[in-house]
Every structure is written in C-alpha cells, then in structure tokens.
Design goal:
Length: 723
C-alpha cells in the first residue's frame, strides 16, 4: 500500500493524508467512494472496501461469531463496565475475521471494520419492532451504556481505531416501521432536546464516535439524511462532530419517492451531500455526477465528504503496513474462543430480570423427579438471538440448558404446546394440536417451566424476512396466538409454574402477574441464553437485571403510535402505575443500603456527590444496581428521572462504599423552546435499588431514601444536556 506521508505523527495526520490521496482522484472515482461498496482504485493502490458491517451484539451476517444478548438485554444489565467488555470482544472478533478475510481478498459486505452500531434511539413505545436493538426508554441509561459500548468498539490505542462505531438512527426515530420511508416525526423542541438527542450528543462529544447514521423518516419536515437542522446546525455546528455521516440503506431515494421533498435523484443526492451526508448505503450517490453537472452540488463539497471517509480508513490503519497496526496481529482463533463464550455467559446471566418470585425460585433439584418444559420458545433458537445476529457455533435453548443442567438425575419432559402465533403447529392438524400433549406433560411433572414470548420473526425491522406481522411492529402488547391459553392450562394443573418470557419488548402479562408464582424476563439472551436461564432457575447465581423499559398493563393506555410527544410516555411522563416499572428487578440476594448521604444540601456548579455504603447480609454472592433519581419539586416537572447508577457485586458478609456523581445538568428542566435551566427551588434525590414510585415500592418492599436539596437562583446549567 501507499505510504502517503512518511514520518508524520499519525494522530494528527489522518486528514492531511486523506486530502493528499483524494486530490489524486477523478470526480468519478471520488463519487464511487461515497457508496457503501466502494470499489478499488488500483492506480492509487486503494483496495475495495465495503463500509456495511453490523456489530449490534456481536459480529453479524458474516459467519461464525459470538452472539451476545440482544442490545435490550445488555441494557438490562445496567452495567457500563460489562457493556465496554462486550464491545471490546466484538471489536476483537471483527478484527480477527477481517484479518483472515483480507488474506483471502474477501472484501464483501459485512467484512469491514466500520460497525453500524450502537442503536441509540429511544424505545418510546413498546410496539416498535426495532426497540430490542436499543438500550431502552431512558436517555441517561442509553447515553451511559452507548458511550461505554463505543469506547469498547473503538479501543484506546493512541494511533488507531480498533473498529469504527456508528451511532444510529439520527434522529427522532422509533416507528412505525411500515411508514418509516414517508413518515414525518413531528416533535417539540423540548422533547427533541430532553429525550431524543441526549444520547447522540454523548456519543459525539464524550465517546468521540466515528460515524453517525441518519434515519429514514423526516423530522419536523426535513428528511433526516438531508436535514440542515440535524446534520449541519446541531451535529456539526453545536456538537463539533468531525467524523462521517452515512445514510440509512436506500434512504436517499425516499427523498423524491416518498417524502416528496425533491423532484428526482440528482436533487436528492445534492440535498443529502450539501447538508453533510458523506456516505450512501445504497447506490443513489452515483447520481452525484449529474448533480455536479447541473450545478446542484460542488466538487469541493464532494471532496469534503470523501476526505472524511478516507480519514476514517486512515484511522483504522488501512493505509499503513500491518506490522505498524497493533490490531492486525489479532488472529482468527480469537473468534468464538473459550474466553468469548465465558463473557457471553456472564452477559446472559446479568441480563436476566426476575419479575416475580413467590418463594418458588430457586428450584431445588434434589426434590424433583420430573420437570416439564413447555412453550413455543422453549426450544426456539431464533428467540435466543434477536436480529442483526451472527452465527453461533453452538446454541443453547432453555430446554437444552435445563436438560444439560439436570443431566440424568431428573427427567425432563417437553412439549412445544402451541405455535408462537398461529393456532396450530402442524400444517394438517386441528387448531390446538399440541394442547393435549402439553396437558400430559403438566400432569407428569413436579414443576412446569413455560417459555413464551416473541422472536425476531414477530418484532423486528420493516422488510425482515419472515416477519409475521408485516411491518415488524407489534399490533398490541398481548401474548400472541394460543400462548396465554397454554399458560392458563399449566397454572390450572395445580403444579408450580415458572414463566420464562423471551421477548425484546414489554408484554402485558397481567394474568401471569396475578396467577403465576415466578416470572423471568429473559429478552433475547444470546447463544448461551438457555444455560444462563437454567442456572438462574436452579440458583447457581442471583439475578441482578433491571428493566430498561416500562411494562404496561394494556395497549389502550398508550398514546397513538405516531405521536412523538413524550406526554404519557415512559416512566418519566406516565401517570398510571406500571405493571412492572423501569428500573425494577428482583434478586435472590440480600444486599442493603446501610447508609447514604449527599455532599451538600445546596446544589452548586460542580453538582452533588452521593456517597452510598452497601452491605451483603445474605448467604450468597449477589449484585445490585444503585439508582439515583432526581425530581424537581416544580409544577409540570417530569416524574423522578434516572440520573446516575452503579452496579455493585458483593460476596456474602462484605460491604462496599461507592460514589454517584450528579452534575448540575442532572437537575435541569427543559422549556418548550428546548432550552435547559435549573429553576430556583427544591429538588429531591432518591437513592435505592428502584424508582421511588409506589408500584416499585410495592413490588420490592423497599423505599428508596430521599434527600431534599435547594438550587439557588444564580445557578446556570452545564452545556452538556446528556449528563
């Protein structure tokens, strides 16, 4: 390869080297570098490069790789350190596979070092099919986890990126999927700044994310991939973003075909590039040749875009000798290695949320002769992995995990019970063709484990192959098909029943809450998920996951899906009690907050520190998530909002002291014009293992400690609204 500039400090020379290289290209060559499948330029020793790769929860769509829990499950860990470890593992496997593929000249799609992850859209409505790709409904949780995930992907080498992360989909994007190519998300300045933008701002300003992907929809009339407000004024202007922007796939053609804001292809590509979109997932940017000829876009603007793209490739070390790039030595044996499987198991364990336990769990295997495992998700590999997934070398479903755990000591009986959403399993059978078998299993079993929920064939992205609901969104929050009937017959058998829900979103499981003694929310727990579920059920570890989303009681209490106002949405603005609240999750352990105090009773410019001492009074190792919520005692203020958290692991009989930092900006309120202020008055800080709402207190039996402090009139909020 060409070494464009000799003996130059790499960290400061990426852009200069890119400029020198781009200056040697023809207009046609530059334009072809702006599509995701960029061709080789042999005369300049530029290799072909495909920008499109996915790493949401593991290297995706390119063969064998570790499949970690889906993003929503990773969010349930409430563990920043774990998110960075998982992302570092993903980047290691990405480099491992890339290095191998390069040896065989494989530059196909999903083979590059630019990972289009994480998805930091706010999961504002549980019907959204892609919500399981996100970190949930809360801007603070999403921000903190995304920052650490990006750091894990990009690494901490002073000269090179390990991989290049891409925060998506910018911005105000969370369904409905079936109209995403034409939909106009109308949002107030308040909701834009308070809810939809903070995670992106943290990704840019704190994590230094290398790329941003635009969304399909319009936001306040502008298509996101060509939005002057989003891309020029906010992203590059206010936040100082210096990386590259990529369109969502084939989103540019939506400008004229569906949004109707341009007349043709040339106008669409000009609108995108003039507002700062540098890379086209798709091929429409090839019309830039016409746009330049028509005077719609300048060659200088194209130069700017291509320089940004080659700057990223320089940062990845793609134009340096492999011996000079530390990540080039990562061998193929790092992929799917034993250490990766162990980390995956840990992530699966930590993602599981215990929603209910009336003294049934953990199960005592010594008292069991026969265990019944029923349900359409008991042996469904698709329910392990979610979407944007790779291929595991081994999958362990809940049924297989329980069988492996119990071995020959306990008989395990299995029935699918019902189809995931249809009224029968067999094509020629009568409706309910597995119900009798399920009854037979229940009759013979000492305990029944019912595995229900969804999979990525029911909730996912518009156009996903095999999506049964068409668009990917859920029509309602109910268990589909005959699943609730199956659960009822299990409960009516008189045997103890454990419900394991595998789903990427909240379901209205009111019957289960009223009648089933133990409920586990397993999300899409990754290829090791079945093993983690079995170990939880039989007490090999104490569950520690917390809900990153609200579980509602009914579909009817939700606002219209197309309404992007945050009124009555999520724990921050809902008025009714949740079925299971955001931040909630039970444990087998007995960790308590022995003491807590704030550093001051008056809020200053440096914010407030909360000192918390925890003790494990139980007989087993356990973990808890200390959560700090801030509530402004002002009319029309949001409900108490999560502003700090820390996961703490404690052995029996041990204690720990931690500090949670609440910056001044954690107390800011947003006006209708989107400006943030800290009004004079009182604020309450709640510190505990859950929200301070009545439902969380009812479910946990614990009330978070409350501390009142005062904000003086002269206090000005910090600029970083994502804190």
């Amino acid at each position: 390869m060409v070494n464009i500039t000799e003996n130059t400090e790499k960290i400061n020379s990426y852009k200069d080297r890119a400029k020198q290289l781009v200056a040697q290209m023809t207009l046609k060559e530059k334009i072809h570098q702006m599509i995701h499948s960029a061709p080789a330029i042999e005369r300049l020793n530029v290799k072909a490069y495909n920008w499109w790769n996915e790493g949401l929860h593991g290297v995706a769509r390119a063969g064998t790789a570790t499949i970690f829990p889906q993003a929503i499950g990773l969010a349930a860990t409430f563990d920043e350190e774990l998110l960075e470890q998982v992302a570092d593992a993903i980047s290691t496997e990405t480099r491992s596979k890339f290095n191998m593929q390069q040896r065989y000249d494989d530059t196909d799609i999903y083979k590059g070092l630019t990972l289009w992850a994480p998805n930091v859209n706010i999961f504002r409505d549980p019907r959204w099919g892609r919500g399981h790709e996100t970190y949930g409904e809360d801007p603070h949780l999403t921000s903190r986890l995304a920052v650490r995930f990006i750091r894990g992907l990009q690494g901490d080498d002073e000269n090179y990126l390990k991989t290049a992360a891409c925060a998506k989909h910018f911005a105000v994007h969370s369904g409905p999927e079936d109209v995403r190519h034409s939909f106009n998300a109308v949002v107030s300045d308040k909701d834009l700044r308070e809810t939809y933008l903070p995670a992106f701002q943290a990704c840019v300003q704190e994590a230094k994310v290398e790329a941003i992907m635009g969304a399909y929809n319009r936001t306040n009339d502008e298509p996101c991939c060509g939005s002057e407000l989003l891309l020029k004024q906010i992203l590059r202007g206010e936040w100082g973003f210096d990386g590259h922007v990529v369109s969502d796939c084939w989103a540019i053609r939506d400008f004229h075909l569906h949004h109707k804001v341009t007349a043709n292809e040339a106008e669409s590509v000009a609108l995108a590039v003039n507002n700062g979109c540098d890379l086209n997932c798709g091929s429409l940017f090839l019309f830039l040749q016409d746009a330049v000829a028509q005077g719609l876009v300048s060659e200088e603007q194209i130069d700017t875009a291509v320089i940004r793209l080659f700057t990223t490739r320089m940062k990845l070390g793609l134009f340096d000798e492999p011996a000079d790039v530390p990540f080039s030595s990562i061998g193929y044996l790092e992929t799917d290695a034993p250490a990766m499987r162990q980390l995956n198991l840990q992530a699966s364990r930590d993602s599981l949320v215990l929603l209910k336990n009336d003294d049934l769990l953990p199960l005592d295997r010594s008292k069991l002769r026969t265990v019944g495992v029923i349900g359409p998700n008991a042996n469904n590999r698709r329910a392990l992995v979610g979407n944007y997934e790779g291929t595991a070398s081994r999958y362990i479903t809940p049924l297989e995990g329980i069988q492996d755990y119990l071995g020959d000591d306990v008989r395990v009986l299995y029935s699918e019970g019902c189809h995931l959403f249809r009224d029968k399993v067999g094509g020629l059978g009568q409706p309910g063709d597995r119900i009798a078998e399920a009854r037979g299993v229940c009759a013979e079993s000492d305990v029944i484990i019912v595995c229900l929920g969804l999979d990525s064939g029911l909730e996912g992205e518009e156009g996903d192959q095999g999506n049964a609901f068409g668009s990917g969104d859920k029509p309602n929050l109910d268990l589909p098909g005959q699943q609730e009937e199956l659960l009822r017959l299990a409960q009516e058998s008189g045997k103890p029943v454990v419900l394991v829900l595998l789903a990427g979103s909240a379901l209205a499981v009111n019957y289960a809450d009223e009648h089933i003694p133990a409920i586990v929310q397993a999300w899409y727990p990754g290829a090791q998920g079945g093993r983690a579920i079995a170990e939880l059920l039989f007490g090999e570890f104490s569950p520690s996951g917390k809900l990153p989303v609200t579980f509602y009681r009914t579909t009817e209490e939700l606002p219209e899906f197309t309404d992007y106002s945050m009124r009555s949405r999520t724990y921050r603005y809902m008025q009714q009690p949740a079925l299971y609240p955001f931040g909630y999750g039970l444990t087998y352990g007995d960790i308590e907050i022995e003491s807590a105090e704030l550093s001051d009773s008056t809020l200053g410019e440096e914010g407030i520190r909360a000192s918390v001492r925890l003790v494990n009074n139980g007989s087993i190792a356990a973990a808890e998530v200390v959560q700090a919520y801030v509530h402004a005692e002002q009319e029309h203020a949001p409900n108490p909002q999560l502003k700090a958290f820390r996961k703490v692991h404690l052995e029996p009989g041990t204690s720990a002291e931690i500090e949670l930092m609440l910056p001044a900006s954690a107390f800011a309120l947003f006006a209708e014009d989107g400006t943030a202020t800290i009004p004079e008055g009182e604020y309450t800080v709640h510190i505990g293992f859950s929200q301070p709402d009545a439902r969380s207190i009812e479910l946990t039996g614990r009330t978070p400690q409350a501390f009142v402090l005062t904000a003086p009139a002269a206090l000005i909020p910090a600029a970083n609204s994502y804190s």
